[in-house]
Design a protein that fits this description.
Blueprint lengths: L38 E5 L1 E3 L5 E3 L4 E6 L2 E8 L5 E5 L11 E4 L7
Antiparallel strand pairs: 1-6, 2-3, 4-5, 4-7
Length: 107
């Protein structure tokens, strides 16, 4: 009886990797400003049609005001939290419009 060659690919196979000498760096390296005069904070939360919620990290968030032509941007972090620091504001308060866009990939 002849030995049969081993199959190179099998359905349901898994690849296993071992890593040596791994390092991990934080996903953001932006330090806080030296002086924080104003702070606008919020959370990006997706409301699913089944009634559940998902806090979304890594979503680009924009802030702009009718009194300022500048558009400011940041990203949400873990837990969907985002912060804008030192946005221009008056003593009476400045209203900002916040916009975030999340593209759901179904693949």
């Amino acid at each position: 009886m002849k030995a049969m060659p081993k199959k190179l690919f099998r359905i349901g196979c898994r690849t296993h990797f071992d890593f040596d000498d791994m390092t991990l760096r934080s996903c953001t390296t932006q330090p806080l400003p030296q002086k924080i005069d104003t702070r606008l904070t919020g959370k990006v939360v997706l409301n699913f049609s089944n009634g559940t919620f998902g806090e979304l990290p890594d979503v680009k968030v924009w802030a702009y005001s009718a009194n300022d032509s500048q558009v400011y941007e940041t990203f949400s972090i873990q837990g969907g939290e985002f912060n804008f620091y030192n946005l221009p504001a008056t003593a009476e308060g400045t209203e900002y419009i916040i916009f975030a866009q999340y593209i759901f990939n179904t693949r």
